[in-house]
Design brief:
This protein has three helices and six strands. The chain has helices at residues 60-68, 72-80, 97-103, and strands spanning 6-7, 22-23, 29-35, 40-45, 52-56, 86-88. α1 (60-68) packs antiparallel against α2 (72-80). The longest helix has 9 residues, at 60-68.
Length: 104
């Protein structure tokens, strides 16, 4: 496993592995996705430029605990944030039906 946090070299954007992101109820986190085959957690935050972060080596159990946490942001800070990650350029996130209705 890579022990360093990585990002694309200046002027280059690597292709982000295809992990669908879905909106979540959180003050800090905009959307979360998970790929059980590669044990990769994908997250996009509400603050900042909208980059997407991939955290490899996240077990299914850790992902389930994150999704069930009373506070996703607090759980992230304690259990996920210390892990290595790869940062990808921002991209759109699927909207829930309620969010699409509110935007209309």
């Amino acid at each position: 496993m890579n022990d360093e946090n990585t990002r694309a070299p200046e002027g280059q954007t690597p292709a982000r592995p295809d992990i669908a992101l879905f909106p979540v109820e959180s003050n800090q986190v905009k959307a979360i996705g998970y790929d059980s085959a590669t044990e990769t957690l994908a997250m996009q935050f509400k603050h900042g430029a909208g980059a997407i972060y991939h955290y490899p080596g996240v077990t299914k159990e850790l992902h389930e605990a994150l999704m069930a946490a009373e506070s996703i942001g607090k759980f992230f800070g304690k259990h996920i944030k210390p892990l290595p990650f790869t940062k990808y350029a921002p991209e759109p996130v699927a909207e829930t039906a309620q969010q699409a209705e509110e935007a209309a």
